[in-house]
Structure formats: C-alpha cells, structure tokens
Amino acid sequence: MGWTKRQYIEQAFSAIGMAGYVFDLEPQQLQMALTRLDSMMAAWNAKGIRVGYPAPSSPQNSNIDEETGVPDAANEAIYYGLGIRIAPDFGKTVAPEVKFFAKTAYDTLLALASTPIEKQFPGTLPAGAGNKPWRNNDSPFLNPPCDPLLAGPDSVIEFD
To answer: Checking phi first, is residue 69 left (phi over 0); if not, alpha (psi -120 to 50) or beta?
Structure first.
C-alpha cells in the first residue's frame, strides 16, 4: 500500500517547519495543500513522470485520506516538492537543505523513471564477420529499419 494524500501533506508541512505537533493545520490549509498536491502530480504526469498517483477529475472530488499507491522511491520527491510549492503561501522561506533534498529526490525519480530511446541501425551498416549469409539472409548489410509504432504510453492500440 502507498501513502495517503494526507501523509504527503503533513510531511510537506513538516519540511517547511510547520509540523503538526507545533501547528494545528486548519481544514482550509489542508484543502489548499491537497489542491496543490493534485496539480503538482498532474503536471508531473503531463511531463511523462507517471508514478501511479490517483488524479481526481476535479478539485472537489479529491479525497485527502485516499491511498495513492505511489512507489516508495517517489515519496521523498513528492513531499519535498509539495513543501516548496506551499511555503510561500504561509510566509515561509524554504531552507537550502530542503531545496537540495527536493532536487536530489526529483533527479533520482527521473533517473528511475527514464528509459533510453531505442535507436535502429540503418540498412547501410555492414553486418560484420559474425553474420554469415546462411544464418540470416544473403545481404552483407543489416536489415533495414522498420517503421516505429507511433503511439504514446497512454494511447490505445487496436489490433484488427
């Protein structure tokens, strides 16, 4: 199971120095932070950083106690990023350490989520000495590249 949205919000407030044991968070503050969390995760999703966060259809439909199902590797990036986003609303200056931790966690998340782009060899590249004609074909060159599939990660592919 993943963290709840409330846990991310509480950790974000803690990161900017407004921990729950010192400050009592009011419902308006929690709702504002929830809206910021949802919009931050929607922005990440638009950038291609998909961690499984359940995005609501509208701000009114977001449930603060909903479990997110986000992998543990993304937790630190989420709550530090949220802390940086909500700090100005409370007149807080973000400490350099928090900015450093947020940047490091975000970079780690990007490294885990990134996949290299596959590149095909051109059809004019010699096959080399190890590729004998009786194994593949009679051409001394590699097979020409095939057309890539043009569909995004969220697209539907139909097979006829």
So the answer is: left
Domains assigned to the chain = 5-113 (1.10.3230.20)
> With contact defined as beta carbons under 8 Å apart, do 33 and 39 qualify?
no
CA distances from 23 to 36, 83, 88 (A): 20, 15, 17
**Residue 160 pLDDT:** 46
Question: How many other C-beta atoms lie within 10 A of the C-beta of residue 67?
Answer: 13
Instruction: Kindly report the backbone phi and psi dihedral angles of residue 13, in degrees, each rounded to the nearest multiple of 5, phi listed first.
Output: -65, -35
> Residue 74 is encoded by which pair of tokens?
């993304």
Between CA 108 and CA 159 the distance in angstroms is: 36
Q: For residue 117, is pLDDT > 80?
A: no
Q: Is 126 helix (H, G, I), strand (E, B) or coil?
A: strand
Taking the C-alpha atoms of residue 5 and residue 63, their distance in angstroms, rounded to an integer, is: 8
**β-bridge partners, 126:** 141
CB 94 within 8 A of CB 14: no
- Look up the pTM and report it: 0.70
